[in-house]
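EI: anyone free to look at a 254-residue chain?
SC: sure, send it
EI:
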Amino acid sequence: MALAEDANTHTPLRPGQDRVTRDRYVVFFGERSDHPAFTVVQRLRLREDDVEETVAELRTLLRDRGRLPCTWEIGTHATPAGLTDQLLGLGLEPFDEPFAVGMVLDEEPPAGPPEIVVRRVSTAEEMAAAHRIARISFGHDDPDAVSLEEAARDLERERDKDSWASFLAFVEGEPVAQAQATFTAHGAVMNGGSTLPEARGRGAYRALVRARWDEARQRGTPSLITQAGGMSRPILERLGFREVCQIQILLDRG
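SC: here you go
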């Protein structure tokens, strides 16, 4: 499924995001530029004789935008065969987590534990809590750097577009995990789930999956799509997700 293999190519853009689409590739620009994962080259359809030229072209484009280093995603349907090895030969290197699988769920997943309450983010305070959990989970130096004003702006953008949503999981009234979903005509793409280290293993991730399924079902598109790394893949398999493609992830320092 194209949406699972090249999600950033097919999902609606959010404020501050951009996308460059060519016959040979797509480049996705996230809201931020401080991490390679926010700049992604994907949906690669190259010929044997234009790989080196395309790498040079993309490095120029990305350097001009101040978006190096970046990541490259080489999916199951990328061409030519052996593209990953060619890119490694041109100076790219395996990313921190160099492999992911595209996964799809099209049947109802189990509910989360009863002690975990999940709801869609509805206040600036909740949005700030979701940002804080994400920043802790992804190793940011200052997890409390997000202001209420910034969180309120992000919440207003969600309400204006209604093409994505943020969710919080609570234990005894305290937020312990967060996740997002981007809604498309083919289902909800799961984004950015994370749980505080001290709350892991209690079912918060499972509860967030179910909440996003319920939201997708209410919208008439009962399907979940995601790209899973080594930590989340076993959990998703137990919840009924099936693998539809594989993705190798490389880092280009330029």
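EI: The longest strand covers residues 93-105.
SC: 👍
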